[in-house]
Design goal:
single chain, mainly alpha, two-stranded antiparallel ribbon, 2 strands, globular
């Protein structure tokens, strides 16, 4: 289980908004909102992988292995295109955080 600091809770909320507004909502295999752990995993995967393809692979493998539960339409697992949409939606959140850290704000 991942640690849910105030900042991580904020990241999860923003990631949900960004992915939903871009047309790639984070849903579980039953059509409900994905768990906070799953959303945070996606955010951290994007943060750890500056190359989109690497982040897509990390999310895809974790989903296939059952570490996280994501689906694009109820029980239809996400595919590479959907996962790329998730990564591209979350990327601005991650880059804003990196820029703030580089300026010494964190």
């Amino acid at each position: 289980m991942l640690e849910f600091t105030h900042e991580n809770q904020h990241r999860v909320a923003l990631a949900r908004e960004l992915t939903y507004s871009s047309g790639y909502p984070l849903r579980d295999r039953w059509g409900y909102a994905a768990s906070n752990d799953t959303v945070l995993f996606c955010v951290l995967a994007v943060f750890a992988n500056p190359i989109d393809k690497s982040a897509v692979d990390a999310i895809g493998v974790a989903n296939i292995m059952g570490e996280i539960q994501l689906a694009c339409d109820y029980d239809t697992p996400t595919g590479e295109e959907y996962e790329l949409g998730i990564v591209q939606a979350i990327r601005p959140l991650v880059e804003d955080r990196r820029d703030a850290a580089a300026r010494g704000l964190f």
